[in-house]
Amino acid sequence: MMAPVPIRAYTATTALGAGRAAQLDALRAQRTGLRRQRFDASTLDCWIGAVDGLDTPLPPQWAEWECRNNRLSALALAQDGFREAVAAAVARHGADRIGVFIGTSTSGVHSTELAYRHQQGDPPHLPASFIHRTTHNPQAAAEFVRLCLGLDSLAMAICTACSSSAKVFAAAQRAMSAGICDAAVIGGADSLCLTTLHGFNSLQLVSADICRPADAQRNGISIGEAAGFALLDAGEPGADLALLGYGESSDAYHMSTPDPQGHGAAQAMRDALTRAGLQPAQIDYVNLHGTGTQANDASEDQALCAVLGTGTPASSTKGYTGHTLGAAGIVEAVFSLLAIEHGFRPPSLNTRQLDPALRGKVLLDGIEGPVATVLSNSFGFGGNNASLLFGRRA
Amino acid sequence: MISVHLTAIGLAAPGLPDWVHGREVLAGRAAFVPAELPPYAPRLLPPNERRRATPAVRQAFRAAEDAVGERDPSQLATVFAGSDGDMAILHRICAALAQPNKAVSPTDFHNSVHNAAAGYWGIATGCRAPSTTLAGYDGSFALGLLEAAVQTVTQNHPTLLVSFDVPAPQPLYAARPLGAAASCALLLSPDGVSGSVARLGIVQSEDAETQLDDAALEVHRRGNPALRALPLLRLLAAGQSGRVVLPGSGGRNLQVEVFT
After folding, report:
1. Based on the structure, what is the number of domains in chain B?
2. Rounded to the nearest 10 degrees, what angle do helices B55-68 and B87-97 cross at?
3. Which of the residues of A are catalytic?
4. What is the b/e burial string over A104-136, where b = at least 16 CB atoms within 10 angstroms of the residue's CB?
């Protein structure tokens, strides 16, 4: 059993808008943030989940950190009183006692893409304005957040593809229980780039249609961008929402295809239940990884039914935001916390006809009413699985 | 202070081809001759994956397999730590995306994730234990050591740390000029294990990072984030107790005390 970790503040910015209220409104109204549009020089005609308001450069003192990914983090940090909550935690614990754990898959790779497009000379060189350390390097995603918040402890970037910003909860919980820090800013940021759009497309995983999780006709993902953050504060009384458990595992199966039997995913879900000391029947809702690929949704259904049976209400929220890759873990953690705080379970959006081969109880209509516990799944390339369990402190 | 046992060490860098030979150099018993490492075929990978494994993945496996030796790796939790992932792949993808048809290789894309080496390791070992891949720029080794030590003590479970980085080709190289490809690995265990090489006491520190007095090895140390481990490995090679400070990630360095 693990002691619940209080979540003192949380926020997310996605294609649904900036901050928690925008997420809540869209989830309740069953409104997608996906739009059929092109990103930058992409030649793909598909649906994407772009965040509005990323065309404004960072303030001059952050010029060195200028890139789409850090702009997205800065926008998300400015929502929902998050900075103020961190400042209060600094006053309680000290800036050197608050760790930063940020998940990202591609950080500011779009800066490198642009630099390659604008290379000059013979032999070619990248523009002098390109700074790798503060933009594309994965640790930039964590260090930028640390510096923005004036923190003075470790800054860890976790990069396990699409489970990255779920695993930050686990790393922070462990660091706090080992006494490395008293509180933690955790979260993730992943922004649109040509690498993921054309990369997933090369694997034939990008749908030309809008993504339709669990649908009989589903044929791939829609890519989105997002950033989200949470403040975990182990010693804080006032907070009510909490991380109750987590589970992590590896598929040991294939680099880019999930284990069809879902053994690794099931192990992560079971470990989350064990850490929380909860029985399967005590889970009120599962926020699925639910990318909308044939392989993911089928494999996850195997795991879901093996661990929780076929009766637990579940849905993917990728139809609202798109697959936000390294930010998916924190975005769906925020959705899980909103479901508990506001008492609702969102339906699977864009799902027209459930795949009859899936046995889990995928919600096609939302449910209003109290939600005590939510399990949220995130799975990544390389067979990297994480499952988070949220609820209220007893 | 976090206290863990170190049960095995792996190393792979020019002039330090494995721990058995590298320790002789680091202890001052053999000369440092930074000869390029010959290509490496990971012994744990099935033939198909061995064919697909990139130079960065092979570099990670080289130190990981050196550390694990004949032990059963199928139950070990793993922490992979590195600054930049596979820079040669990032170069090829960004070069392809600068062309009108944007033809990214699907194999390059699935190998481009920062946790590619961890994915191959899981496939190679059949290990379903938790695996983390993290990035901490030049402090990646110390960050990985901290995470691996925290996992070892909080989960009471042995954890394999693998730190590696490989340099980029031009023009990306100019933006991140790393030295030669290098990797190192430490197998950590909780209290009560047999066969401990040393006990490590780990704590965050504001002190300056330890440098090496041997100029050529100091160039090595600065050339690759994985080789920021060299001051620690030098103590271990000499079988000495002592204290080193390694560059951290964020606002703090990491002090490691060795008790032999």
Report:
1. 1
2. 160
3. 162, 289, 323
4. bbbbbbbbbbbbbbebeeeeeebeeebbbbbbb
Q: Is B250–A153 a contact, with Cβ atoms under 8 angstroms apart?
A: yes
- Domain range holding B16? 2-197
Cβ–Cβ under 8 Å, residues A37 and A225? no
CA distance A281 to chain B (A): 25
Looking at CATH, the fold of the domain delimited by A5-392 is given as: Peroxisomal Thiolase; Chain A, domain 1 (3.40.47)
Question: pLDDT confidence of B52, banded at 50, 70, 90?
Answer: confident
Q: Are A128 and A115 in contact (CB under 8 A)?
A: no
The CATH number given to whatever domain includes residue B153 is 3.40.47.10
The residue-averaged pLDDT of A136-148 equals 98
The confidence band for B215, taking pLDDT boundaries of 50, 70 and 90, is very high
Check residue A153 and report its DSSP letter: S
Q: Which of A190, A198, A219, A159 is nearest to A350 (CA)?
A: A219
Q: Which of B126, B127, B135 sits opposite A138 (nearest CB)?
A: B135
pLDDT (mean) for B211-223: 97
Q: What is the pLDDT of residues A296-341, one digit of tens each?
A: 999 999 999 999 999 999 999 999 999 999 999 999 999 999 999 9
CA dist., res. A80 & res. B211, Å (int): 44
A13 touches A74 (CB < 8 A): no
**DSSP character at residue A215:** B
pTM of the model: 0.98
